[in-house]
Each structure stands twice: as C-alpha cells, then as structure tokens.
Amino acid sequence: RASLPLVINTWPFKDATAAAWDALQSGGSVLDAVEKGCARCETEQCDGSVGYGGSPDETGETTLDAMIMNGDTMEVGAVGDLKRIKNAVGVARAVMEYTSHTMLVGESASLFAENMGFIAEDLTTNKSMNIFSQWLKGNCQPNYRKNVFPDPSQYCGPYKPRATLQPNKMRRHANTHSHDTIGMLAIDQDGHVAAGTSTNGLTHKVPGRVGDSPIVGAGAYADSEAGAAAATGDGDVMMRFLPSYLAVELMRAGADPSTACKTAISRIKRHYSEFFGAIICANTTGHYGAACNKVPGLSQFRFMVANTESDAPLLKS
Ligand code: SD4
Fold this sequence. Notes:
Layout: E1 6-10, H1 14-25, H2 30-44, E2 64-70, E3 76-82, H3 88-98, E4 103-105, H4 106-115, H5 126-137, H6 153-156, E5 182-187, E6 193-199, E7 220-223, E8 227-233, H7 235-238, H8 243-252, H9 257-269, E9 277-283, E10 288-293, E11 303-307, E12 314-316
Parallel strand pairs: 3-4
Antiparallel strand pairs: 1-5, 1-11, 2-3, 2-6, 5-6, 7-8, 8-9, 9-10, 11-12
C-alpha cells in the first residue's frame, strides 16, 4: 500500500526518519525534512559513518560529503571533501540557496561554510584517532571480516607510500563497517519530492577522495514528475553508473520502484558482480522499494519508512 507523505532512508537510522517526519508534520517542506533528517544523523554520528569522528582518511582527518536536491526545480546543492564543519547537509543546502553553483569542494567549501555562519570545529574524535593509529600500525579494525574481505591489506594497513606499490594495490573498497551513508527521500501530500545524502565516506581514503554521495544522479536524485532514489555502498564503483538517476528514469518510464531499484543494481553487477551497495526508490504516489548487492552479514538491505500507515517509523528490508 502507498500513502503520502512519505519519508524513506537508507539503513536503520530511525531517529533521522523521525526528525524528517516531524519536520513534515510541523509544516516544513520536503527539503526541510531531508535536511533535518540527514542533519540528525550528522549529530548522532549514525553508525560512525555519517558526520564527524568517523572514517578517517590516510592522514587521520575526517572529511564529509553531502547533497540535497529539490525535485520541483531540479536545483541541487552539494559539498565534497568538506573539512571542519559538522553540518555537511546544511552547507549543501546553503550552496543551493545562496549560490548559483551546484557543488563546492575541499578547503573552499569549508571557507564558504564559515562565511555562511557555520562553526568550524575539529571533526576528529578519540575514536577516529584510534581507528587511524591502529591502521597506521597495521592492526585490523575490530570489525574486519576475513570471510568477506579476504585481503587484509585493504583494511588493516599499514600505510605504505603509493610510489612503492604496484598499480591499484592501494585500492580500498567499501564495506558496511567502513561506512553507511544516510540517503533520504521525502515526498509530501502534493507530490513535491526531495532527496539528500550525508556521509563521511570511506575509511582510510586517499585525501581528496569524494564518493558518490554528493554526485547528482549517483548518491541521490529527485524529480517531482517521477520520484526519487538514493544509494549507499561502494561509491567509487557505484558513481560510475549513476544508479539514482537510472532508477528515477525507469520509474518515469513506468517501472515500479522495486523493479527500478533492482535494475539499477543489476546494471552495476554486470561489471562488478562483487560490489557492495544498495538503493532505495520511491515514486510520486508513495510506492517505494529497495534493492542491494552483497551487503556483508545481511541477506537483505535494511531501511526506514515513515508514512501515515503507522504511528512510528518502520524498519523494512
Ligand atoms: C561513499 N557511498 O562515500 C558512500 C558511503 C556509503 O555505505 O554509502 N556507505 O562511497
């Protein structure tokens, strides 16, 4: 059954769903809902993979990626490699509303944020410092899973200068423990659609790495004439296929959301059968679906839904 309004987000981040739902219930727009929902995860450091204090890069620094998209106007704001600012999705919205640009990155994005009144803070925590120093020493992260990722060098370090390596030996692919982005979709009673993402990306990434989350059509996409989609997983692979855009286009052509999600995942599997990733989709009538590939430890991908069918956000898989 479908009903509107609808909030749906990746992973069991239920406080984020509730924050977005409350925003809609108190008269906020779908953009307000997506921003508030993603921001809740940034504050709560959902799974250690959204917001500050997670996924330190090769130098130990945490950097953030986020985007927000207005499906009515097709406006987008995005930030990549954002440093020192905790509220990445807020900065993304400021890019959308206060500039004529779509995406700002790195140090310049941080300076823009500071100019907009966002507070500059250290994004490092004891936990992220510890993950970093263990990796430097060549110790596996406690949640490293040998059965899923047999090559320990990808997760356990130790760091080696790239110049001493064979090509691609430093490739690090994502796992569910190294990151779990929030991707969120909101649709109101009148069919206004918005989508957004927020993440600290991939643990031990090369500085400057930006994932799929802030890339339009990759991390998320919204079009009030068709629906919205958001992705999570190995962004380095997934962004090559613009899965969120593809899913929305399939729904526009008449596919139901589950089929659209499955097709977007299958397209990636054709080239990368072992990639880890998932996508959520919703159309403008409030029907929704999800699909995934190789979510370690889980047979199905888990996501949250809030609509008028229940009093509280529901965990789905
Ligand atoms: C990235 N796709 O930076 C993001 C992270 C993620 O589950 O989704 N993790 O690659």
